[in-house]
Amino acid sequence: MNFARLMTSLACTALVAAAPLAAHAQADKPFKIGVPTFLSGAAAGPFGIPAKNAAEIFAAAANAGELPAPYDKKGFGGRPIELVVIDEAGGTTKQVSEFRNLVEQQGVDMVVGYTSSGDCLAVAPVAEEMKTLTLFFDCGTPRIFEAADYQYVFRPVATATMDNVGAALYVSEKLPEFKSYAGINQNYAWGQDAWADFEGTLKSAKPDAKLTTSQMPKLGAGQYNAEISAILGSKPDVVHSSFWGGDLEGLILQGAPRGLFKNSVVVLTSGETALHRQAKQIPDGTIIGARGPNGIFAPENTYNTWFRKAYNDKTKEWPSYPSYHMVQSLMAAKLAYEKAQGGDAAKVPTKEDVAKALTGLSFEGPSGKVEMSLGKGHQAVQEMVYGRVKKDADGNIGFVDVVRYAPERVNPPEGVSSADWIKAGLKAAN
Amino acid sequence: MNGLLGAVVDGILYSAWLFIIAVGLTLIYGVMKILNMAHGTFYAVGAYVAVTLLGWWFAQGLPPWGIVPVMILSALVAGLVLGVVVERGILARFAGRDPIVLLLVTYALFLILEDVIKLIWGVDPWIASDPLWVFGQVEFGELIYPTYNLFIVVVAAVVGGLLTWFLQFTAKGKILRAVIHDPEVSRSMGINVGRWNLIAFITGSVLAALGGAFTAPTISVVPGMGVEVVVMMFAVVVIGGLGSIPGTVVGALIVGFVRSFAVHYWPELEVFSVYAVMALVLAIRPQGLFAGVELRKI
Amino acid sequence: MNRTFTFLPPLLGGAALIALIAWFLPSWNFVLAIGLAKGLPVLGLVLLMRGGLVSFGQGLYYALGGYTVGLASQYFGLKDAAALLVISAIGSALVAFVVGLLLSRYRDIFFAMLTLALSMLLYGILVKSTELGGTDGFNVHGITLFGIPLTGADRMNGLLLLIAVCVLGAINLGLFGATAFGRLLAGVRDNEIRVEYLGASADRAVLIAYVLAAVMAALGGAMSGIIVGHIDPEMAFWATSGEFVVIAILAGTGGVLAPFVAAVVLEVVRSFAYQYAPNTWQLVLGLIILALILFLPQGLSGLVRRGPRAVNAGEKS
């Protein structure tokens, strides 16, 4: 009895919820974009919410036709943008399930999202199977386009390979006197890959440097006293960390009073997200990366000027790299859609046309030039930037020794996997 | 030699932290036979309240010696509110149900509270790290620690001491031990078991929040920070023997030292270490190290 | 009809109903499949719970099943679902037998915690195994059944196979419940010492139930790997095992159908919460679980037995 009632009410809820959506879809054909990004858990603060903010800012500005040219057409080729934001938390099975729901129940035209590499890997074949244009905006693993070919799946941001190759090149070139190094990375694919790439590059770039200790605490551990002691005790010249979010902030909070940043030069490959909140604790000389020319390292151009202002107007904060990644991905999508229209604003291009327009696309965004030159035109490369913190008299963070590595210096050539390329000493194996 | 000293100091610091939170979990289990899945979330709430009050305290420019009372106050506020609302509002409605159902109730609570935290404090990290700096530093060999880190050891010792004194040397403590031993008989002797349930639950919640409050300055307080904590605490109380306070001390020391030595000497084994020790202890002593042999009822 | 088989008509009816729903609402196909794949480990868990035992480590076998499918198809080119399922079942049964020899002496919270520790050990190993993709896991491609494709546009086939596996699993456990060992479990829960006085071995009943539960979990994990097309260490994480326990309690220990109903209902509810309350889906889910416990004290399986009925020996009513 009760159960029947429960099912009935569930079914009613489903109908009520689905009805307005169906009606709406026929009205004036908005372009619906599914945006899966972290809304709960530790990744929400540093990644998910900034990305969601950026998506909303982009959608509002595009719908009003206020973006700088060539993005100044309203919406997507005249169609207003509608965002469907969902939570990326819950694991890969849940995300595959929710991806299908986005496409089949919410009827989105495109999906732009995913911060977790595991989610990207799992979603990619499903997106291909469902012939749904899918743009990964933030995940780092290079395996996606190295292990398989896709027609509908793209990543208009660079992989994490260049973060750690760039970091290794930077310390080898800027700190010629360094003799030993240590690492502290989270014990999951992101941290493991980051460390492997950094260590692998150093083996060819600085073969005489010695590894002292590699610490791999688990993701979200929060307390790193023992790890910090072990690193301090081993006295490395350089410490590498790909920590992000709360873990990164915890490492800085606990490491700074214990002299971690004084005794060694610390490289924080994703340090930019913690920069403004923790300006006080990050001492001069710390090497900071922003996963590309984003945020603090973004070039001066009209897109960046627009984005910084729009983001600051909405949130009273300055945008960090996840929000750059999001805007950059949406710009790529908009540009490809309008390119596929071929100048006819009334035309609704097919997904295949848009995919073709995205393949090998080269465009300019808030972080400068982006070229979709890897993975048969589905994977973007950008330049990589590192700099060392130098605070002014008021404690405001600035950077010195900023080095910009050209894309081909920190990314493998087409057809070579990151791992093989690093193993071969950053030379194409042939 | 320095490495060994560091490993010992880190082991003690970590054990103290584990003990404060785990002893709350074991107290609640001992009295109510509920394994509280939301315990880690109580810890997180304590941290959030503390970081909020500390931020206010330092923003007013009030003297740093006041932070210890501020943190204790945070823990009391968080623990009392959570304890009363959860025990009276929810758990009491499920009294007498199968322990496994109560476990599920606390799991539902865990889900609800995770979102409530988000609704109150948002998803951005909260940081109040001044206490780490204002008390200066101490040196052990070559290693430097903020003096503040030692506070947690003092707190653990005080908590352990007070609990032991209460349970072993006061009349009320004797009553509580009777309730732990056999609630049914206690009830028939005229003890208000329901009230002791409430007291135990509040005390356990305050302890979790106390752990959170004293940890807050050293970490970035973020959503989901309690999730990892609760399984670690399960390991501690199970190794020591559920419901036993001396057992919790030993469990905390074992887990704390195993982890610290793993980090210092075999970092690649750190992930396994705690669970391997837990499996090993259970394989040798199924009841945990300190729990008495349970009488089987015929 | 023999009393042993009274569960058959609703089971087959339910299977047909699910297949029909999936046929008419293809967009719900995947959610149903995930629910059913989770229902299998829950089915095994419910069996253990009849003996008063709660395993917090069924994720161990869920992951074993998934990784068996992944590794066998990736490294040995074995792409046939039937063979993969059989290998998963046998492999996990062997592991469960060895582990069960130790575990069957444990009860209550200690059983729960030891199972949890063991599954977290596997999790630790999988996380460290970078050649298997570490925490990112890896994709499973192109599994077929005797040449029939199961995924992609043909995922209805996958769902039908899953339904068949579920029905077989349910029949298997339904029959086991009627055997001497199956009936002993209730005795183990209520009073183990009396069971031993009767000359039966409580430990052996627990061991058999544990192995059966492990096989169910492995089949669920294997089917999940085939249908989702991706496996990762999360399958062995304590939260996965915890979710199975949650579903099992919602299902109640009453029947072989309830675990699947509970798993599917929870999956559907979660899907709705995700889509319509993306910022507070945990809150919604938590409240629904609380409401279900409050209003359905016997779990979902309690719903169908409101009427007068005989109380089985050893079952608390």
Automatic annotation (TrEMBL), chain A:
Q: Which UniProt keywords apply?
A: Amino-acid transport, Signal, Transport
Tagged with keyword Signal: yes
Task: Domain (Leucine-binding protein): give its ranges.
Answer: 30-392
Q: Which InterPro entries is this protein grouped with?
A: BCAA_transport, Leu-bd, Peripla_BP_I
- Biological process (GO), any one: amino acid transport
Signal peptide: which range, if any?
Answer: 1-25
Q: Which PANTHER family does its entry note?
A: ABC TRANSPORTER SUBSTRATE-BINDING PROTEIN, LEUCINE-SPECIFIC-BINDING PROTEIN
Q: Which family does it belong to?
A: Belongs to the leucine-binding protein family.
- Any idea what this protein is called? ABC transporter substrate-binding protein
State the species of origin.
Answer: Ancylobacter defluvii
Automatic annotation (TrEMBL), chain B:
Pfam families reported in the protein's UniProt record = BPD_transp_2
Q: What keywords would UniProt list here?
A: Amino-acid transport, Cell membrane, Membrane, Transmembrane, Transmembrane helix, Transport
GO CC terms of this entry: plasma membrane
GO BP term, example: amino acid transport
Indicate how the chain sits in the lipid bilayer: Multi-pass membrane protein
Which InterPro entries does the entry mention? Answer: ABC_BtuC-like, ABC_transp_permease, BCAA_transport_permease
Q: Does the keyword Transmembrane apply?
A: yes
Q: Which domain of life is it from?
A: Bacteria
Q: Where found in the cell?
A: Cell membrane
Query: What family is this protein classified in?
Result: Belongs to the binding-protein-dependent transport system permease family. LivHM subfamily.
Q: What is this protein called?
A: Branched-chain amino acid ABC transporter permease
Q: Which organism is it from?
A: Ancylobacter defluvii
Instruction: List the taxonomic lineage.
Output: Bacteria, Pseudomonadati, Pseudomonadota, Alphaproteobacteria, Hyphomicrobiales
TrEMBL record, chain C:
Q: Which PANTHER family match?
A: ABC TRANSPORTER ATP-BINDING PROTEIN, HIGH-AFFINITY BRANCHED-CHAIN AMINO ACID TRANSPORT SYSTEM PERMEASE
Q: Which residues cross the membrane?
A: 7-24, 82-102, 109-126, 159-186, 207-231, 243-269, 281-300
Q: Which GO terms describe its cellular component?
A: plasma membrane
Key words, A-Z: Cell membrane, Membrane, Transmembrane, Transmembrane helix
InterPro entries, per the entry? ABC_transp_permease (IPR001851), LivM-like (IPR043428)
Instruction: Using the record for this protein, list the coiled-coil segments as residue ranges, or answer none.
Output: none
Q: What is its main location?
A: membrane
Compartments reported by the entry? Cell membrane
Instruction: State if Disulfide bond is listed as a keyword.
Output: no
- Which GO terms fall under molecular function for this chain's record? branched-chain amino acid transmembrane transporter activity
What is the name listed in the Swiss-Prot or TrEMBL entry for this protein? Branched-chain amino acid ABC transporter permease
Keyword Repressor among record annotations = no
Annotated organism of origin? Ancylobacter defluvii
| Domain of life of the native organism | Bacteria
Topological type in the membrane: Multi-pass membrane protein
